[in-house]
Amino acid sequence: MRLLTNGPLTPLAVPDRVTLINEVLASGLRGRGGGGFPTGRKLQAVTGRKRVVVANGCEGEPDSLKDRVLLRRSPHLVFDGIQAARHAIGATDAVLCVHEGSPLVAALRPTAAARGVRVVEVPRRYVASEESALVNFLAGGAAKPTVSPPRPTERGVLVDNVETLAHLAVVARIGAEAFRARETTLVTTPTGVHEVPVTTRLADLVTGPVLAGGYGGVWLADAGGLTVGEAPGVAVFRSPRECGVRDTAAILAYLAAESARQCGPCMFGLPAIAADFAALADGVPGALDRLRRRLPVVTGRGACAHPDGAVRMAASALAVFADDVTAHATGAGCTTRRTA
Length: 340
Description:
The chain is α/β, with parallel strands linked by helices. The protein has helices spanning 17-27, 39-45, 66-73, 75-89, 104-114, 131-138, 162-174, 176-181, 244-257, 264-281, 287-298, 306-320, 322-329, 335-339, and strands at 52-56, 93-99, 118-122, 157-161, 184-189, 192-197, 210-212, 218-220, 237-238. Strands 3-2-1-4 form a four-stranded parallel beta sheet, with helices on both faces. Strands 8-7-9 form a three-stranded antiparallel beta sheet. α1 (17-27) crosses α4 (75-89). The protein is globular and about 65 Å long. Its cofactor is [4Fe-4S] cluster; FMN.
């Protein structure tokens, strides 16, 4: 069963809660929003008297288009997944979150209302769709990440990416064994959104250096034998648009500007790292040494994973684009530009 080519299906006959969760566990389904956490275990982790399902369709990753395509072409599967998740955890409420001003809102509201799901528009900021930020926003606070614990599941809230929920609907419909035999995933590449088997080699989709996992992912020198299912983070694969050093500097500047600015790593660490990477790209002496000192001290100290992702991406760029990094650091200029 493919997500993007199936039209409306017969009504979903959801099995009893225990059977459904066991099937999801057996399916091996993992979250498709970047974390990759086993969905069955997440369903089991939800506690609390009042329980809510939050379908995250905000797609905060700037290069990702998959969730928008899914909500436009197969919203019925997302709503079926929300129904299945509500049944699995005993939720009394369900919310579909999308970014403010999304053209999808008008199209989604009638179906959502008919299925007992509220559509909520979330501010267009990179960290606003992080799960704790969504929970805080829905509770009346700012769309900013909050320190865990308690985790959203410990507050009775299941937050799942819309693609994860669409796959959950498939598991509920065909069972774990059939799902494993034909599991697919949605990927965003420089040529658009594709639905491919999770066993697809990344090298069949992209060539050369690639940023795998979006802005919080890692640069890879080449796809090699890595499969889409093994790739890190949300399935977004971006090729360098020019020089890898300058591309990384631009991404870091964006990430620094999009932070919640509520803890030290985001307020001070990311702007400093972004400035150092920009200085490295411009051949400023000492920038590379400062980066090597700063990167290790930022990780693991933020209220959310935003600074960790930025550091991971920056560190991978220093390794993958080592020749260009050396050329920039020594003032020799960009090797990518000289050989282009």
